Amino acid sequence: MNEKNFADMASQFLRATLDSWRAGNYVFAVLHAGVGCEHILKALLCRHNPLLIAEKGDQAFRFHSLGHGDADGVKPLSEARTIGILDAFKTATILMRGRMPVDEQTFRPFANSRNGVAHSAYVDDHLAVRKAVETGIQVVESVRAELGIDPADFWGEYVSVFADLAQVADMPAPAGHADRPLIEAFAEQLALTERARTRAAISMAVTTAVEAAAWESATRSGEHQEDVARTALNTALVSALRTAGAQARQAAAQLLAEYEVLSLPGRSDTSPDDAGVMRQAHTAVTVKVMIASGVIAGLVDVQYLDLDLPVILSLINLDATGWLRNSQATGEHAWWRDCPACGYAGNVYGDLNAVPCQCERWEEECMHSGGVIDVGTVESFSCPFCGLSLSNRGEIITAGIESRTEAPGPFW
Question: Tens digits of per-residue pLDDT, 115-169?
Fold first, then answer.
């Protein structure tokens, strides 16, 4: 990946941002803007030195940048890991020497929309969404100017209005979209449908579990009855979540198939240089994440709207036991990553090898679980809470799931 490729992809995603805003699909606008902003920040870093975008400890990208990508033992570029949007912003701020228009505190909420895709998927605060997109556009435009890219080439038909989202919203529908709604609109509607369906399913399952656990309770000791009630509740909740997750995955797959967003091979050597493939992967991930977010939103609704149901205690118990985590493991070491749809610890699989960290040599205190930092190449991801499933490297890269081992913190 080089400066030009990053800049070209940034232009594509920023135009997609404004296409989505123009069509009234505001959540997708945030997500497209996050990806586009990350790409143009990395374009700036590549201009100064391509090694600036390499993730700490990643050797593959370093060897490729130095022209030794074909040497024995060097992993393909598709497996190289680069820094995230926030680190890219921090470095770009230094390089721009006071010309960055916003500070880190202002930028951070927008940055969260890049890897925290899902948490915006059912946001109701239109002003917050507008602010996020405006922040992203402001940063992108300043970096575009820093790179000296012609504004008309970068923004296309939006060159005179990109800074005014009200004007963008007033533009006529893009050619070719007047007769068929954009995929974003359907995805948002499906997310709302899954949210309502999940809430109803969990409420019914938990209510039934509480009722069933009370049957013949007088014949059991207090401790035995607690075990019965806890087991019945956990079983009902997990069953409802898994059913909802399966329905969300099916809905996403059907929508992507209808719009001919085809699935990539399971073990894809997808390169970030392939703008077309990565754009397709971005669409697939965004649709999947948005619809899966409806599942976790339904669960949250039960927590806060059905206060008489003992859902929170069951969630705490399930999280503390770790029963839902069944990632690939080597010895006593297992792998997981934060789910981009719900934030829970999701299971990851692939060519994974634990590598000892070097904290004893460089740091006073080691924060790595098990003393390892590298798990190799993650090929697939599945979340036991919301059902999100990512099945290839293109989707893994796009979702911002990194091949780094960290013990997840408490979810609840």
Answer: 544 444 444 567 778 898 999 999 999 999 999 999 999 999 999 999 999 999 9
In this structure, is the dihedral angle defined by the CA atoms of residues 322, 58, 288 and 291, taken in order, positive or negative? Answer: positive
Residues 233 and 221: their CA atoms lie apart, in Å, by 18
Question: Rounded to whole angstroms, how far apart are CA atoms 412 and 357?
Answer: 29
**Entry field: residues in the chain:** 412
Mention every residue, 6+ apart, whose C-beta is less than 8 A from residue 341.
117, 118, 121, 288, 289, 292, 293, 295, 296, 383, 386, 388
- Candidates 342, 255, 339; CA nearest to 294 is 342
- Residue 303, token pair as written in the block: 């927590």
Q: CA 273, CA 46: separation in Å to the nearest integer?
A: 14
Of 28, 9, 14, 3, nearest to 136 by C-alpha is: 14
Q: Which residues have CB under 8 Å from 327's CB, separation 6+?
A: 334, 335, 336, 347, 348, 349
Instruction: Classify the C-alpha dihedral 272-274-275-280 as positive or negative.
Output: negative
Q: In 281-353, at which residue ranges do the beta strands (DSSP E only) sit?
A: 329-330, 333-334, 336-338, 345-351
pLDDT tens string 217-226:
888 888 888 8
Give which of 92, 267, 117 is closest to 187, Cα–Cα. 117
- Residue where the block lists tokens 């004893």: 360
Number of Cβ atoms within 10 Å of the Cβ of 75? 18
Model pTM greater than 0.85?
A: no
**What backbone torsions phi and psi does residue 404 show, to the nearest 5 degrees?**
-140, 135
Cα distance between residue 396 and residue 108, in whole Å: 22
Alpha-carbon Rg for the chain, nearest whole angstrom, is 23
Report the alpha-carbon angle 77-83-88, nearest 5: 130
What is the number of alpha carbons within 13 Å of residue 211 lying toward its C-beta? 6
**Contact assessment for residue 39 and residue 55, using Cβ atoms and an 8 Å cutoff:** no
Q: Which of 110, 130, 133, 132 is nearest to 17 (CA)?
A: 133
